[in-house]
Amino acid sequence: MNDLKNWYSSKTIWGALVAILASVMHFTGVDISTVDRGQIVDSIVNIAGALGGLIAVYGRVTAKTAIRSSS
């Protein structure tokens, strides 16, 4: 496993966070089904990816220096 990605692109991380949140919510009386958890994780990963893209575009548009080609 040599591929690297940002933590917010990991379904495992988001799945764990949703599971923790679901446990806390269940403890307080709100129940989230297993199917809903999967949909929540997919939605969070999609939103995080979109936000990452927007931040990258914003960073390039507001950058003070140009990108130099490798040649």
Terminal CA distance reads 31 Å
Q: What average pLDDT do the residues reach?
A: 80
- Strand proportion, as a percent range, falls in under 5%
Helix content: 55-70%
Number of strands: 0
Poorly predicted regions are: none
Compute the gyration radius: what is it? Answer: 18 Å
Structure class: mainly alpha
Number of helices: 2
Shape: elongated
Q: SSE order, as H and E?
A: HH
The largest sheet, given as strand count, sense and whether it forms a barrel, is: none
Please tell me about this protein's structure.
- This is Holin.
- Keywords: Membrane, Transmembrane, Transmembrane helix.
- The chain crosses the membrane at residues 12-32, 44-61.
- By secondary structure, this protein is mostly helical.
- The chain has a domain at 32-63.
- It has helices spanning 11-27, 34-61.
- The protein is elongated and about 60 Å long.
- The mean pLDDT is 80.
Secondary-structure topology with pairs:
Elements: H1 11-27, H2 34-61
Helix pairs in contact: 1-2
Summarize the structure.
The protein has helices spanning 11-27, 34-61. With 71 residues, it is mainly alpha-helical.
List keywords for this structure.
mainly alpha; 71 residues
